[in-house]
DNA sequence: CTGAAAGCGCTTACAG
DNA sequence: CTGAAAGCGCTTACAG
């Protein structure tokens, strides 16, 4: 079998307690003994057994990350931010996705008991948030990311989706657009609802009528909405999609249908995923620092005093930034001649 | 504190052994007792302590995934494939990236001891593969992904990069291109070397001269190469980049410099990341089923008999598929009139 | 500074 | 079918 602390102790002629202390950098070990233990451990290629260590020390050196999904640019960016900080602190990451099924979230959370020291959870569903507390391992520090929060709930860090959507609407209105359609996200999704609210609030302030197409955040639904727009008897001046993926899908459908962006219809998204910079025309969007969201979440989880105890329920908010690209050039542009490129 | 197996035992009026058996679905528990235990466990919201369970059972229900990085479309896709299978089997994923630093790979591997039942490792470096065995936790099943393999090394699953690059070259040659430049990947990277080898082999077979630009797989290096091409006294007919990100960067630089793709220069990449379908013009590439690579790797790790023992060292190979898009339209196309779209 | 021993929360032969 | 007990590999008061 594998080499254990006993093997090291025997070989170094000390007790396992001393080996443990030496390896963990405790001060009360004679310098000479420490060196001997370390060298023996090295020779034997000893590596402490994690489960044993965490069972007795009650610490796992691991942070659990529970997400709706692992797939796509958004989660990839989020993980990058979390991973960066985890690595700095020498922590491991146990990731678990519940694949968009809110029902499986509880199981994922419960499975974290005894595996992690703290939990990062993204739970963007509007329904079923009450039961969340029940599934949370007892007395486990937790920070919510981009999730609806109760006043007495856990610490939380999110994006100002409402303010961001309003800022985008102001940009579109300033560019002279009056008829602005919105591609909404999933009904049950918190971010989606907040963005929709920003849209309707801005329109109401301008005395204009909302015009909403249903969507579910993925490219295909944006593509469908684009197809519907092409068929529609009248067309909007601009389309604001609740996220970039839908904006891209919509833009794709429009260009396939011979509708020019931004000359015929301006398009804007939300998130600023890497793709948005590359498409043609480049997409105007609200930049969300997704990696930063993850980094801030894990840092605040690790902060001292950040226990599940009541009291200092901090709720941070990240403010997205307007990024104007070609897809929303003002209408006053010289109309383009028919393009000869495909 | 948290509720333990003892609490359940006491409340259900049985021994902890019986609770353990009931919870683990062993057959030798009276039906009535089983029901009682399960119901008590449920009432108490009991969830087994993972470290304790794995210390005594010697199983962790967790697979370790050690990657060069967590960031970007490639790893996101890979994780998706792995996660899908893991979830099917009720396994957790402990992910660890060594951030492109081969030196840190050893530490990442050693830290897996006692945390995982098996290991998925991507180690695309040509140097330092010998020491890999030393860092591997003793008698731990492991499957290598996209890594150079020794004949007596662990099981491995990879992509036929050499064959894929040759296939792409044949496509470009058939399209009538004679002067074909190559944007290479990092010198120390196994995939990059294999693709380069496919390029040079195909050229040699056609009696043509190689023309290689250095790169490191990221978009910026492709952009630099594109800039160099624009300045060059003569230009190639086509550019074959060792991966899509570089191809995209190159294409971007060319279009900024007024060089038309594919009319002036054809471009091709490798990987078929999602972005490649969206850019303008869409990128010709070799499709690698990245998620499938991950899925196959974890499945083969989980296969019975897949121990570290010698013998059945299976080495699977995935064959990439040629995807021809606009960026490599044959030269015989009607030359496009100057475009009026930006 | 060091060691013997208890204990972390489970699982699993071993008896019955 | 069930229980008492050993044991998994560590850490950490408690003595000395």
Describe this structure in words.
Two copies of one chain form a homodimer. Chain A is an alpha/beta fold. Among the domains of chain A are: 58 residues, lambda repressor-like DNA-binding domains (434 Repressor (Amino-terminal Domain)); 136 residues, Rossmann fold (3-Layer(aba) Sandwich). Chain A has 13 helices and twelve strands. In chain A, the strands form three sheets. The first copy, chain A, has a six-stranded parallel β-sheet, with helices on both faces. In chain A, strands 7-6-8-9 form a four-stranded parallel β-sheet. In chain A, helix 9 links the parallel strand 6 and strand 7. Chain A is elongated and about 85 Å long. Chain A starts with a helix and ends in a 19-residue tail after the last strand. The relative contact order of chain A is 0.12. The C terminus of chain A is likely disordered. Chains A and B meet through helix 4, helix 5 and strand 2 of A and helix 4, helix 5 and strand 2 of B. Chain A binds a DNA duplex (16 and 16 nucleotides) through helix 2 and helix 4.
Question: Strands, helices and their partners?
Answer:
2 copies of one chain form a homodimer.
Chain A: H1 5-12, H2 16-23, H3 31-43, H4 50-57, E1 62-67, H5 73-88, E2 92-97, H6 102-110, E3 118-122, H7 132-135, E4 142-145, E5 155-159, H8 161-174, E6 180-183, H9 190-206, E7 212-213, H10 219-231, E8 238-241, H11 244-256, E9 266-268, H12 275-278, E10 285-287, H13 290-302, E11 315-318, E12 321-323
The first copy, chain A, binds a DNA duplex (16 and 16 nucleotides) through residues 4-6, 14-18, 20-21, 24, 28-30, 33, 48-58, 114.
């Amino acid at each position: 079998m594998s080499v254990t602390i006993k093997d090291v102790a025997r070989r170094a002629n000390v007790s396992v307690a001393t080996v443990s202390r030496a390896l963990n950098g405790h001060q009360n070990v004679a310098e000479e003994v420490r060196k001997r233990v370390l060298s023996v451990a090295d020779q034997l290629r000893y590596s402490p057994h994690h489960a044993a260590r965490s069972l007795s020390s009650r610490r796992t050196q691991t942070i659990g990350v529970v997400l709706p999904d692992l797939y796509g640019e958004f989660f990839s960016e989020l993980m990058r931010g979390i991973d960066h900080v985890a690595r700095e602190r020498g922590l491991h990451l146990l990731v678990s996705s519940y694949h968009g099924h809110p029902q499986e979230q509880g199981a994922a959370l419960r499975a974290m008991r005894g595996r992690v020291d703290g939990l990062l959870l993204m739970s963007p569903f509007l329904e079923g948030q009450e039961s969340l507390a029940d599934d949370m391992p007892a007395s486990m520090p937790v920070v919510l990311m981009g999730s609806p929060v109760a006043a007495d709930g856990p610490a939380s860090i999110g994006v100002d989706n409402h303010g961001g959507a309003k800022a985008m609407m102001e940009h579109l209105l300033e560019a002279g657009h009056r008829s602005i359609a919105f591609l909404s996200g999933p009904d049950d999704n918190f971010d989606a609802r907040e963005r929709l609210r920003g849209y309707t609030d801005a329109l109401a302030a301008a005395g204009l009528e909302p015009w909403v197409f249903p969507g579910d955040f993925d490219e295909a639904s944006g593509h469908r909405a684009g197809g519907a727009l092409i068929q529609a008897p009248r067309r909007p001046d601009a389309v604001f999609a609740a996220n970039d993926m839908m904006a891209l899908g919509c833009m794709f459908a429009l260009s396939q249908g011979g509708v020019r962006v931004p000359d015929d219809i301006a398009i804007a998204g939300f998130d600023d995923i890497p793709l948005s910079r590359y498409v043609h025309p480049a997409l105007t969007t609200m930049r969300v620092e997704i990696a930063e969201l993850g980094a801030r979440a894990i840092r605040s989880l690790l902060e001292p005093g950040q226990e599940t105890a009541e009291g200092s329920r901090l709720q941070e908010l990240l403010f997205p930034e307007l990024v104007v690209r070609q897809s929303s050039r003002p209408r006053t542009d010289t109309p383009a001649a028919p393009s000869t490129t495909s």
